[in-house]
Amino acid sequence: MVKAMKIVYFVLVATLLAIPALHFFGAKEGWTKLYGWEKGTKVVPFTYASYTNRTFQTSFTEDFSKNFFMRKTFLRTSLQIWDAFNLRTFHHGYKCSIMDGRDGILFEKPYLKFHLEADRSGDTNKYASVMKKLKEVDAFCRSIGVDFVFVPMADKPQAYPEYLPTWLDWFFDYSNYDTQGKLAALCRANGIKVFDSSTYLISKKKEWKEWVYPPGGTHFNAYGMGLIYEGFTEFAATNLANRLTFNRFLGAHRAEPVWCVDDDISNLLNIWYNPSLWNNPHYAPEFSKNAVANAGSAIVLGDCYSEQIVKIFKDAKLFEPKKIVRAKRHGAQKAQDFRDIIANLRLVVMTYQSFNTDRLDEREKEIDNVFAAMREARKKVCIKVPDKTQK
Amino acid sequence: MVFTSTVFLGVFLPLLLGVYFLANTKARPYVLLVFSLLFYAWGEPSAVVIMLALMVFNYFLALGMTAARERKWLSATLLGVGVCADIGALVAYKYIGFIVSNLLPVFSFFGVKMEVPQVALPIGISFYVFQIISYMVDVRRGTVEVQRNPFKFMLYVSLFPQLIAGPIVRYATIAQDIENRTADFGNIVAGFRRFTIGLAKKVLIADVMAGAVDVIFAAKVETIPGFYCWLGAIMYTLQIYFDFSGYSDMAIGLGRVFNFRFLENFDHPYASCSVQEFWRRWHISLSSWFRDYLYIPLGGNRKGTVRTYLNLFIVFLLCGVWHGAAWNFVVWGVYHGVGLVVERAGFGKIVKRFPKVVGNLYLMLFVVIGWVLFRAPDLGYAGTYIGNMFGGGDAVFRSFTPLIDFISLDKLVFMVIGTVASYPVFEPMVRRVPESVRLVFGVLLFAVAFMLAMTSAYSPFIYFRF
């Protein structure tokens, strides 16, 4: 009996080992391109040069690793095993652990963690700390006659709670979760201008023509950003003292279908390193052709979404391209970075996705750094006295 | 190429197994040799030439030593030439940059302008050089017969399971195995089971710990609160053990598949109750190499107490140097050397009187601190890190934000599993389980570990850099 089982053991192990090697007998499983613009794999021809500089080995490894037979099955199986035990499904980097949701929709675990832990208690101290910082920022902007707008961003679990993993139902009541909305309400109560992009976006969910987060993606795509831009223009028309001309968002152009339900983790790696479809040249927003830029300048600061806000503002010609500056997120912000724009500053936009409950110290340091640089820049530049009669 | 890479698991190993077991018995050593050289040459296109040169050089020297056996001065000279050439190669490729960079102040004092040479370190050179030296010394001592077949000698040095990161195999251990190339089904199954355990240790525990450890040690040391310093040190303690012992398990398992019986390299070192015991259980092939080829020739413990301590100190200083061309490795080696000397001087007798739990705690505290020296990028970082562990610094617990996203259930679960598995707890339990059940579990474990390894990003073994 034991000998028979050993034979079975050997056969099963040998079979498992042989499966990927079927790649070389034509049994390839193509690498699922999620976004169309990703390059496929190709093995560099073997030559002395390609061998000694290792391009052959690298290309061979990449091609095999991404195309071997039954790779997707291997991925799915290992993901589901981990998920069944509520353990990690995949690790990439120090914060991108992925959770496998329903129908192949992927979520980042840290955001789920926020929902589960950070805000269920409604920790008012955390909100108070955030509000204190926002008030400081708002007061400074008011003192120099500049509009300040805080734009909390929705995250994927908020956008697509219906695709969260089944087991999460046991722990989480979605109806109680709305950290961005709560923060927005506090801002309004304190006279801080806030465009709650999260509530706006989700309020338009029935009108969504396509996914705003790709099923395997970590950021809004160009379509989602376009919707937020539209909402921002409506908000600006009634809330901003400085009159700005907003150019019409016509839609997001894309070259080919951009999602695949049966996601491939290596594609997810690409998504993480190329964090947003926004950077995809084949998936770009379009604005009205008669777009005209406003006079003046703007500063945008915050998390990765601040980069997207800057891009959309530039594409929409809200200001001239060189007059929209994204503040540094890490490292020292220098006053000279604002030198050319501080005199005619009209708008400051701050956007964060996980600002309200987590990494507060880190966020506050970023903001302090930026505003210290702004103050320094103002001291060195002759500032026009703002026209207080302008509404 | 690493054992957990897609190319090794999905291409090299299946191809080798197919070609090897289809070949006739006489051809098998040459098949293994070719594949071993291919294994090395895949990742080291230039360095394979260095290994080949050393193998050829030492092969002829060993033949010369055997021929000159009656003339001891000649055989000693040939041995000396061989060892110098081997050590010289190791120094040239591994330590020259370190030596020059530390001597730069001296050079500039004498008005000599020097640039620190940037030399690529051939992977595994520390291991195969030591293996060649052991062979040469054993041949001179007469404890092994010289291998006259150059290809079988090259097979001994370059055998792929142990080539890159050990265990350091003595020729006597596998001399018979090299000749015996028959296939043994029992060994094949046992080998794969051992390989599976190693693979599981690497992908399920070592790599999981590595994620958190890399985050902690990448942070500015003054920002890391004491709690996370301890967490990082303990996780690294687990990471290095499961990474290295996992690799050794895979090496031993693969060796067994091909009918080679390597000696054990680890024996639950974290279950030790003293530094002396630790070094009888950790990286056994290296510690025994230093004992047999350095400590004993220096006189061992036969030349008085002071000389014994000095010999121990020298051995562990060089052990630290062997691990890396950086001061923190040297200090790590000295740290363990001092620990051993102190125990020999009398503290060891005191420790033996402790209950085993206390002895083990003492040893683990000693080892965990030592691993910080090993892992830290430099001595300054290590010093501050250890200071933080014992209350130094003013980093606030809640302010260490990089790890907030990262500590998760899986890491804590595997930390507990890893800690328990470090002790000889599971083996007695597993032995009570029927063989058939163990085989079923073995297949499942192989399937899970195999799938994870085939679908995860590249993760090299820690001891690769030696």
Explain what this protein looks like in three dimensions.
The complex is a heterodimer of chains A (about 400) and B (about 475). In chain A, about 40% of the residues lie in helices and about 10% in strands. Chain A is elongated and about 85 Å long. Chain A has a four-stranded parallel β-sheet, with helices on both faces. Chain A has a three-stranded antiparallel β-sheet with strand order 1-2-3. Chain A has a two-stranded antiparallel ribbon with strand order 5-6. In chain A, about 40% of the residues are buried. Chain A is built from 13 helices and nine strands. Chain A is of the alpha/beta class. Chain B has two domains: about 5-185, no CATH class; about 185-465, no CATH class. At the A-B interface, α1, α3, α4, β1 and α5 of A face α1, α9, α17 and α19 of B.
Low-confidence stretches of chain A: 88-96, 256-276
**How many E-type strands of chain B?**
0
Quickly give the structural class of chain A: alpha/beta
CA radius of gyration of chain B:
23 Å
Query: Any idea what the shape of chain A is?
Result: elongated
Write out key terms for the chains shown:
heterodimer, A: 391 residues, alpha/beta, 3-stranded antiparallel sheet, 13 helices, elongated, B: mainly alpha, 19 helices, globular
Write the layout of secondary structure elements.
The complex is a heterodimer of chains A (391) and B (466).
Chain A: H1 2-21, H2 48-52, H3 55-67, H4 71-84, E1 91-92, E2 96-100, E3 106-108, H5 109-118, H6 124-143, E4 147-152, H7 156-159, H8 179-189, H9 197-203, H10 222-239, E5 249-254, H11 265-273, E6 283-287, E7 297-302, H12 304-315, E8 324-326, E9 345-352, H13 360-380
Chain B: H1 6-22, H2 28-43, H3 47-67, H4 72-109, H5 125-141, H6 150-158, H7 160-163, H8 171-179, H9 185-218, H10 226-257, H11 275-281, H12 284-295, H13 305-323, H14 327-353, H15 356-375, H16 379-389, H17 409-421, H18 426-432, H19 435-455
